[in-house]
Write a structure and sequence with these properties.
By secondary structure, the chain is α+β, with helices and mostly antiparallel strands. The protein has a single domain, classed as Orthogonal Bundle (Cytochrome p450), CATH 1.10.630.10. It has helices at about 10-15, 15-25, 50-55, 90-95, 100-105, 110-125, 130-135, 140-150, 155-170, 175-200, 205-215, 220-235, 240-255, 255-265, 270-280, 310-315, 350-365; strands spanning about 30, 40-45, 60, 130, 290, 295, 300, 305-310, 370, 390-395. Bound molecules: protoporphyrin IX containing FE (HEM). Protoporphyrin IX containing FE (HEM) binds near residues 231 and 235.
Length: about 400
């Protein structure tokens, strides 16, 4: 069996053969990995049943980086939900849940449709487009900026910061230079949101205004309010970009499924789920430190060791999904784990689904012919977020 190499170019281009090899190992795959903590590596958990167990294991695991790194090295992102354990996690998540509930996202349908239609108007004026730059990227950044209440003209800046930050967060490419850049970006972003939080008035609908009210009511600290802004900006668009461009590429690479969807718009929700399973936008969860022995099918992970649940692999596990490498928009059941599980399950799942549903519905309605200009586009060299470098299309 060829060696497993999670740093190889071929892995980023097509990670699925490597994931298959990882699932076939007797124990989890040990990835040597150095970051701000003193850990020398992490167990990569790749089988579906084990990934579910890790994601649901909040009683026996911790995500709190602040327990692992000396205080002078803590930064603004360490206070986000993703790196916070209960009871603080429970308190903080409740503060920002309302806009992401069913009722909350229903109110956004009209504005999302408007943004989608404007972007398609622009696409229609051109014969050839890069779907990533001209649709998949601007849609989610506009939606989350509106929700947060950041000025529309700042979208480009926010996008650039997020892109720089997520490259640094992607721990298989962390080195001293990345950590330094990450620190600078975090400082700039923190200053930006601190200014906005400082200027915000009484709540009139945006999340930033609500967070100011929460801080004034002592429901959260200014540092926690700031962390919410950073996470919502980042989580609110980086993964959705992957869903939109990965989904479009997968549909176009499977023309029979594309035709089926064009003729049966009722299959749209299932198609979005299958896009999320097939090219999982957030490939693996944040690291968890095991606080009580964790028995997985392949091995017992000891207290004090670190695990990472690889959703991108779980979603292709043949023990859970028959013919996992087949893209099938009618797949049932389709219990993919692309939004995670347990207490850290994606807060923005309903928003992401609604963005996906409106986007693909309008794209298929308004663009009768969409053609791939590159049948083998390059994927970005990142292990956390899966997205294409570009998706050139011809539209008719
Ligand atoms: C297709 C799009 C999306 C995917 C695939 C996705 C995936 C995920 C996953 C897998 C997690 C859990 C990570 C872990 O357990 O380590 C997560 C958490 C989170 N997501 Fe999403 N996400 C998406 C869109 C969004 C959107 C639109 C928002 C809106 C702001 C959002 C906000 C969050 C937040 C706040 C968390 C942290 C939850 C917590 O720790 O309690 N996500 N997401």
């Amino acid at each position: 069996m060829a060696a497993i190499d999670l740093y190889a170019d071929s892995f980023f281009q097509d990670p699925y053969p490597t994931y298959q090899k990882m699932r076939e190992l007797k124990t989890c795959y040990w990835l040597e990995n150095h970051d701000r903590t003193s850990f020398e590596g992490v167990w990569m958990v790749s089988r579906y049943a084990d990934v579910v167990k890790v994601l649901r294991s909040s009683h026996g695991t911790s995500v709190d980086v602040k327990r692992l790194v000396p205080e002078p090295q803590w930064h603004a992102f360490d206070y986000t939900l993703l790196f916070t354990d209960p009871p603080d996690h429970t308190r903080l998540r409740a503060l920002i849940s309302a806009p992401f509930s069913n009722a909350g996202v229903r109110q956004l349908e009209e504005s999302i449709t408007r943004i989608v239609d404007q972007l398609i108007d622009n696409l229609l004026q051109r014969g050839k487009v890069d779907f990533l730059q001209e649709f998949a990227l601007p849609l989610p950044i506009k939606v989350i900026s509106n929700l947060l209440g950041t000025p529309p003209e700042d979208s480009g800046l926010l996008r650039q910061w997020t892109s720089d930050l997520t490259r640094g967060l992607d721990s298989t490419v962390v080195n001293a230079e990345f950590l330094k850049n990450q620190g600078t970006v975090l400082k700039d972003m923190s200053q930006y949101f601190a200014d906005l939080l400082g200027r915000a008035q009484q709540p009139s609908g945006t999340i930033i205004e609500q967070l100011v009210a929460d801080t004034n009511a002592a429901a959260c600290s200014p540092r926690e309010a700031l962390a919410h802004c950073l996470l919502l900006l980042l989580a609110g668009h980086e993964t959705t970009i992957g869903m939109l461009c990965g989904g479009m590429f997968t549909l176009l690479s499977n023309p029979a499924e594309m035709e089926k969807l064009r003729h049966n718009p009722g299959l749209m929700d299932g198609a979005i789920d299958e896009m999320l399973r097939y090219e999982t936008p957030f490939q693996r969860a944040t690291f968890r430190v095991v606080t009580a022995p964790l028995l997985l099918s392949s091995q017992e992970i000891q207290r004090g060791e670190r695990v990472s649940a690889v959703m991108g692999s779980a979603n292709r596990d043949p023990l859970q999904f028959p013919h996992p490498d087949r893209f099938d928009i009618s797949r049932k059941p389709n219990a993919h784990v692309s939004f995670g599980l347990g207490i850290h399950r994606c807060l923005g799942e309903k928003l992401a689904r609604i963005e996906g549903r409106i986007a693909f519905t309008r794209l298929l309605q308004r663009l009768p012919a969409i053609e791939l200009l590159d049948a083998n586009p390059r994927w970005q060299r990142r292990s956390l977020f899966r997205a294409l470098e570009a998706l050139p299309l011809r539209l008719g």
